Amino acid sequence: MSSSSFLDDIGQAPLSEISVSETKKIDIIVNKLNSFWNNNSSRRILYSILLPDEIESLDLSSIFSNLPIVENQLGTSNWFEFSCDGRYQKSEEDFTNDKECEFAEYSKGHNMCLFFFGFEGVDFWMNGIKKKKKNRLYSYNDLKLYNKKFMINDIEKVFGDYNQFYLSQKTNVTKFFESKRFHDEIKDTTYSILKNRPENLMRDDLKNYLNEHVQGTFSIEYKLNSGNLVDIYTEQGGNELYILEVKWLGKSICNGAKSEYTIYEGKRIKEGIIQTLQYAQEIVDTMNPESLRQAYLVVFDARADLRRNQIDISQYSNDKEELKGYEKMFSILPILKLINSHPA
What we know:
By secondary structure, the chain is α/β, with parallel strands linked by helices. The chain has two domains: 4-145, 3-Layer(aba) Sandwich (YojJ-like (1), CATH 3.40.1700; 149-337, no CATH class. The protein has twelve helices and 14 strands. The chain has helices at residues 4-10, 22-38, 60-65, 67-73, 100-109, 140-148, 155-166, 170-173, 180-185, 198-213, 267-287, 305-309; strands at residues 47-52, 79-82, 88-92, 112-117, 122-126, 129-132, 193-194, 218-223, 229-236, 240-254, 257-264, 292-301, 330-332, 336-337. Strands 7, 8, 9, 10, 11, 12, 13 and 14 form an eight-stranded mixed β-sheet that branches. Strands 3-2-1-4-5-6 form a six-stranded mixed β-sheet, sandwiched between helices. It is elongated and about 75 Å long. The N and C termini lie far apart (63 Å). 29% of the residues are buried.
């Protein structure tokens, strides 16, 4: 690979001798290495290039002219270090386990700018801080695990597994509820009283499960222009947005008081339908009309068995005419039943 076009633009004088700000110099490096990645046929090979963090002293023209060394050794090495004057110093095979945290630690501990070339582009760390992020996968093992995950289109199947297998395990359920001792003290034999603000526990637990079983990255609190926060979201394929709003049914304690509770019954589902549709409306009308693919309502039902088994989703629907046009991108995911059958 040749860097002649770049060198023609700046001349043969080392960039360290040209008056260029550190920020501008970093931009030049990032742009050049992204171009190197774009023009390289070996995009399925993971590797890193390291430069000293003495940005103002870097001889970029020399460094860039030596990039073909990297290309020639790909497949046998994945770790390439250069000196300030552009000399190629060393390469190593499998220097790290390609873990994101290790890149940050190495960058900070060795005073290096670390550029990771992944499947989706170039990430950049300086002083242990990630400056640029394009990749989701940082090792071949990550890729294997990723390929075993479900696609976003299979999310109903994932919810079925979450409900049937994950939420049937004692340790995965008791964390949402107040302790057995608490229930015994107030003589409540249903053991169904949730902790204060259980929606945060439910949201975080579901987000973690989705990240383990669905391709892509799921995060919390997608901020809308209105300031409202959507509970969970994921951006698939670069610009395909999926949002999940979490609601719960049942009884939760208020701020540690044993006599004050928040109680939500079935009508909470309708409130969730309206709210999720309003979020979809705001994204489409005032933010990015092309990005939203689907808006999901998630319902955790932690009510006593009798009421839980009587739930009928069909009786709840949107009655606001202005939201009708957004129903095509809305759906309710399978109800998640929380049964505290083995209180702790």
